[in-house]
Structure formats: structure tokens, C-alpha cells
Amino acid sequence: MTRKRKRMVFIYVPLITIGVIFLAGKLYVDRVEANAQLLADTGQSAIKLLGEYKSGVENLSVDEIVACYDDNYSSEAEGFWSEELESERDGVRVYQWRLDGIKPFHKADVREQVSRYLGRVRSIEEGKFKLDSVEQIPRSGQAVIRSILWVRGVGLDGVPFESHALFRQWLHAAEGEWKIEKQALIHGETVTGDRAGFTNITEKAGITFESHQNPTWNTPEWLPKKFGIIKYGQGGVSTADYDNDGWYDIFFGDGSHPRLYRNNGDNTFTDVTVKAGLPAEMIGIAVGVFADFNNDGNKDLFLGCSTGPNRLYRGNGDGTFTDVTEGAGLGGYLVTVAAAGDYDNDGKLDVYLGRYLDPRTKLPTTLFYTRNGEGNTLLHNDGNFHFSDVTAKAGVREGGLTLGVAWGDYDNDGYQDIYVANDFGRNALFHNNGDGTFSDVSKRTGTMDYGYGMSATFGDIDNDGNLDIYVSNVHSGQRWYGQAATLYQYMLTSTRQGTILEDLPLYKEIYASVGADYSSYGDRVVKGNSLLMNDGAGHFTDVSESARANPFGWYWGSTMFDYDNDGRQDIYAVNGWISGKKKDDL
Amino acid sequence: MSAVAHIKEYKTGTFYTDEFRGDISWNGYEHNVLLRNDGRGPGGSLRFTDVGMAAGADDEKDGRGMAIADFDNDGDLDIAINNNPGDSGKEERARATLLRNNVGERRNWLAVELRGTKSNRDGVGAVVRIEAGGEKQMRFVTAGSGYASQNSARLYFGLNDKTQADVMTVRWPSGLVEKFEGVKARQLLRVTEGKGIEVTTLPAMARR
Fold first, then answer.
1. Which of B28, B32, B33 sits opposite A580 (nearest CB)?
2. Are the beta carbons of A227 and B16 closer than 8 angstroms?
3. Which residues of B touch A531 (CB under 8 A)?
4. Same structural domain for residues B124 and B67?
């Protein structure tokens, strides 16, 4: 080989290598983009088709609904279903949709089925037909989806009804028009009732409370240039018998005017905020916790604040409170939630504070996994209304955007553990080691629960003696498929925007926890509320899907309680994010 | 629409502004759910039914925190909800919701109040277990849970048609375990750590 040729090799080999890498990279990037685009387009097409279906339901139009089905519709594993009465109690009837037998099903049968269903309906109040997930895209123009039908109206018998059904549907596009070519009912139910189980007595009871946004968010220093939506976050409700008269009172957290209502013991309440010695106006107090911090028999009141210092009021025993904030050591700003528990069993109640990110300077790092919160705080009660920040020593600085904290002894070892629900990411379970420290056992126990966690509660929902966990989340495949498409696309865009370096550690964390399921991670974050069942041996399993405990929606406060005293704990979950001037949604 | 239409906006914060959303809602006007626990089905797994509409507990404001307590001392748990003003411009949507439970009182129940002596006075963290007709249940005392909220520290057990809890145990944070037998339904039990039990009734409604 000549000297000259050697030099040529030195020049060309690296050049070719770079070229090949570049080309491979380009091909990979193109594929990621094409996949994401295909998923998004398919999702959008499905959403459009389901929207047309929904309109047909709302218009009580068999024709409009049947138009969503392909002329060659054919399903060999379907049949007519009917509503079979499953239970009747407390003025509520539940009907399950049962298949009457399998037969080859064609478009005419679909028409017959739809006619039967709508034939029992007097009027439709509202319908929804939402995309739950895109399960498969065999090729462009074809998709297998799961969809959620939700209908409420009044039957011919004048009784209000609501139907909830989950379908698997095979869609395809013919000349640009997407149609259903096959469908299978996964489960469906219709619930009717007299709507008399609960009575809204707000006004009659004299509860005049109206919530307000925190005005600080609109001041120049705090104007959340980055995460503006934080202003829709508050507030909570705390109930305690603060004056020891045997009647439970109510405290409403608020952006500017938190209120304490005393229960008069006659189905009415009186606003006693000022009379009780609390300021008429308090900015950013979204959460209050009644607890007897000095064990004198009177409830004290801890107030967590978003845009200012937290506060502490001592209960005087005569229905009034005294401000003991000064020097109490109550932790930092941006508190969203708080709960008291005695982590070291010293007989004095400590406080765990959940915090969010600083909206002045930060955004959730990624849409689906975020750890740039201000960090939660554990305050140890030293007595005499003094607290010490023991977060670092205890190992409970949770960096997620916390919207739910719950104490509970999940392993029955006599020490209170902590569960944390985080917005934009994963949750955390901290096991109390009994020596003043905690261990993050989220992964080991199966409690990471990826999603938009907005509240958490412990409770034994299956009466097996172990505490289970209910977490409220977002259930909306529509948003994911309509906007974010795939995780790889998101990463690619971050690379182009130059923010990937900030995100990389998060992707590494996601991979470490979900491994091979990495690419389907997106499905998890919008799968809705989670019911994590404790097996008593240190592991939890999310059964929300099979238990039908993850309805479509956007859930905040939630709790377990046995409302009908039948011996089984039920669940209440508060639903809805931002109602705009128009009712139209995505 | 491009698959990546909104990703830039997530990173700049534009997505989270009112201007970006405009007049439309973002999962707004949605109904709260009441998921009735129907126990284990034939397949052995738990099943819930959303009876929110049917039971009249399906408020559709933009709720945030919620708490449960027996506000009328009739033996069942009522619901209080704090609703966010949202962006509808309608003042009434900012009002709170108080839902009185008319169902639970039809069945038997037990209410338990705890007072710690060695443990914290509120008994937070104390676990109460009952056994009634072979069926077991547990509750524990909390001071904060859900979203920014706090439920009743007085614990409620539903007994259905059973007239008593055969056994009730209390495990205090101090480690003390106390056992009581043959506790009749529809009563309020006040347990003071290490000092026994007072069996009483819920305070009666005053006449107005």
C-alpha cells in the first residue's frame, strides 16, 4: 500500500463510518417520527369516529350511529346483548349487559341492537364515547382500539339511567372514512336510580363558602410565567370536632378566604372563622389539618400555604384559636397537602408536608415523569409547638410534584408508613424503619403508579386485614394519543429543543422501573385511578381495571368509606379539571 | 395535526396558559363518582359499580378536596367538597357541596372514638379491628389524606344487618392492644387508652 493510499484510508474510513452512523440515525429518527405520526393520526381518526358515534347517541339517531359501522361489518364472536338485572337496593338498580348467545353478527344486527337500546330511552342528557387506548395498528388505515361509552338520560319509564361500557373495536379506513368493521363488548352496565341516596343540603345547611383563586399568583413577583395552571389547584376540606361538642365541623382551604364552619347540631352550620380567632383573609392556605399537637385535649390547626409561610394555631378549648406560628419551624412555601402522624411513636403528632414545584421558574420536566418538585418535608414535633425539619435524616425528601400524602401502617409493624401521590410522574411509598428513618420501597412493593396522582388514601377495601391504597389519577387516552404520541417522539423533540440533557436522568429512571415496557409507558400514565391491593406480604397489585375502579375522567379528592354501611368500603372520587366558558372539550 | 404539535408548548409553558386553552374546557363539567363496592364476583376479583348518578351523589363542579364525616350524627358518613372556580365565569360553580347521606342509616353501624393517653391524644395511627358474624373489618385514625383534606377521626363501621360486633380490638401507636367483646350496634364507643370503654349514643339532634 502506498503512503498516499494509506492516507486516503485514514480519511475515508472515518468519513464513511460517520456517514453510515448519520444515515442510520436519520433512518431511525424518520422511523420514530413516522411511528409517532401514525399513532397520532390513527388516534385522531378514532377520536373523530367516536365523536360522530357520540353525536348519534345524543341525537337518539339509529342512522347516525349505524353510519359509523362499515357495510361489511362482520363479527363471528358477537351476539345480541340485553340488560340483565343484577342487583337492586337502596333505590339503585344495576343491570349487566349480557350476551344472549354468540352468532355471526352483521351490520343489520348492529342496527337491531342499537335500536333495541335506544328504544328504551326517552331522552339523552349527555353522551361520551372516548378513546381508551390504541392497542394495535396492523398497518396504516387499520387499528384495534379500546373505547369507553358513557351515556346518561331518562328511560321510557321516567327513571334516570347511566350506562358505562368498554368495547374493543376494529377500525379501518375506506376512502378516507374510518369505520368500525368489528366490535366486541368487554363489559357494560346500566345503572338506574331514584337519585335519593344523597341530598345536596349545602344551601339549606348554611354553607355559603365559595372558593377563590390565590391572588398572589397574579402579582408581578409570583406571576407564574412558567406553570400558569397552578392557580386552578386549590383547595381542600378538613373535618374535625374542633370544639368537642360531638358535632363535626368543617374547614375549607382557599386561595384567599379559608373558612371554618361550626356545626350547630341541627343540620345547620355557622361561619365562625373570625369568631374563632382566625384571620378573615389568609392568602394561599389550601390545606388545614386539625390535630392535638400538645395533647391537651383541644384540636390545634396547622395551615399549609402555597405562596407564603405556613401557620399554626393553638386550640384554646373555648372554641377559639391563638396564632403560635412565630418560631414554630413550620417548613417552606409551596405546600399543597399536609397530614399529621406520629412517625416515631413518641406520643406527639408530627407533620408531613407535600409540596409542588416553583411555578415562577419551573415547569414539569417532562409530561409524564417529573422530579423537579421543591421536596416534601417531615416536621418532627418537639413539643411546646416547636417543630424540627427532619426530612433529610428520615429520608423522605420526595421530589415529585406532590398532591397527596397519606399515613398508614401497610405492613402492620406498628409504625406509620407514608404514601405520596405525585402529579406528572410516579408515586412513592416510604416504609418506616422504626428508628427515625424511612426507606423508599416503591419499586419493590409495586406502588410507583405512574400517572397524574392527585390524591391518595389508605384503607382495607377487601377486609383482609391489610391496608390497600386508592390513588386518583387521570383516565384519558384521548389526550395522550392526540398530543404526545410516543415516548420516543417526545425524546426526539426534546433533543431538537436542547432539553434532552435535563430529561435524560428521568428516562433512565423510567427505564430502570419499567424495563421492557418502556415503549408502552405512555399508556400507563393515562389509565386512571389505581386501586393497589396489598397482599399482606409486602406487594401491591393494581386491580383498578378488573375491578372497574378507574372510570374515565380527571380525579382529585378521593376516599374510601362505607357509605351504605353494608360492611364493605366504597370509594368516592371528585372529578373535573377546568370547566371553561364553553362546555366543549378536547 | 402534527404528532408533536404540543410538545414545544409543554416545554415553554405556553400549553399551561389560559390563552392556549381559550374558551373551551379541559376535562370540565365532569361528574363525581360513587364507586359502590359489590364485593368479590364469581371470578374472585373485586368489583365496583359507579352509582353516583343513581344515588344522587354526582356533583359536576370542578371539585378538589373532599372529606367525609357524620355531620348529622345519624350513623352514616356524609360528604363535603371544595370546588374550584375553574374558568367558567359562573359564580355558582365556586360554591362548596355538602351531600347528606340518606342510605347508611338504614343499616346497622358502630362509631368509635379514640383518646390516647400514652399515645398521641387524637389516637392518630391507632387501628381498630372488628369481627361481626365471622366477617372482619379494620379502620384506623388519620389526620389528613386524599387531596389536601381530612376525614372524620371518629371511625365508622358498617354492620349491615348484624346487631353487634363480636370482638373489637384497638391497637394503639404505643403498642398497647385492647380487646372488647360483644359490642352492640348503633352506638358510639369511646375508648380511652388503657382506661376502658364508654358505650354511649351519638349526640342527638337539637330541636329548632
1. B28
2. yes
3. 46
4. no
- Over residues A54-81, the pLDDT tens digits come to 999 999 999 999 999 999 999 887 889 9
Interface test with A, best of B66, B70, B79, B149 (most A CBs within 10 A): B149
Q: What is the model's pTM? A: 0.96
Query: Which residue, B41, B71, B99, sits at the end of a domain?
Result: B99
On whether both B55 and B33 belong to a single domain, the answer is: yes
B189 and B166 in a single domain? The answer is yes
Cβ partners under 8 Å of residue A229, min gap 6: A578, B16, B17
Percent of chain A with pLDDT over 70: 98
B42 and B29 inside one domain:
yes
Question: Rounded to a whole number, what is the distance in Å from the CA of A48 to chain B's nearest CA?
Answer: 13
Given a cut of 60, whether residue A115 has pLDDT beyond it is yes
Residue range A191-233, pLDDT digits in tens: 999 999 999 999 999 999 999 999 999 898 888 878 888 999 9
pLDDT attached to residue A481: 63
What's the number of domains chain B is made of?
A: 2
Residue B109 and residue B202 share a domain: yes
Last residue of a domain, one of B99, B118, B148: B99
Inter-residue long-range contacts of A257-262, CB under 8 Å, 24+ positions, other chains counted: A257/A212, A257/A281, A257/A282, A258/A282, A258/A285, A258/A288, A258/A303, A259/A209, A261/A206, A261/A207, A261/A209, A262/A319
- Collect all residues of chain B within an 8 Å Cβ-Cβ radius of residue A227: 13, 16
Please indicate if any CB of chain A lies within 8 Å of the CB of B60.
yes
Domain match, B176 and B198 both: yes
Chain B neighbors of A240, CB-CB under 8 A:
150, 152-153
Question: Do B110 and B95 sit in the same domain of this protein?
Answer: no
Question: B179: distance to nearest CA of chain A, Å?
Answer: 16
For residue A480, name the pLDDT band (cuts at 50, 70, 90): low
The model's pLDDT over B54-83, given as tens digits with 9 standing for 90+, comes to 999 999 999 999 999 999 999 999 999 999
3-state secondary structure of A428: strand
- Preferred mutation among A250, A370, A481, A572 to probe B, highest tally of B CBs within 10 A: A572
Is residue A482's pLDDT more than 60?
A: no
**Closest A-chain CA to B107:** A565
Note down the domain range covering B83.
3-99
**In a 3-state reduction of DSSP, which class is residue A481?**
helix
Describe the strand order of the beta sheet including A160-174 as a list of residue ranges.
Answer: A81-89, A92-99, A177-193, A160-174, A142-155, A121-136
Q: ipTM of the assembly?
A: 0.97
Q: Do B148 and A337 touch (CB under 8 A)?
A: yes
B90 and B119 housed in the same domain:
no
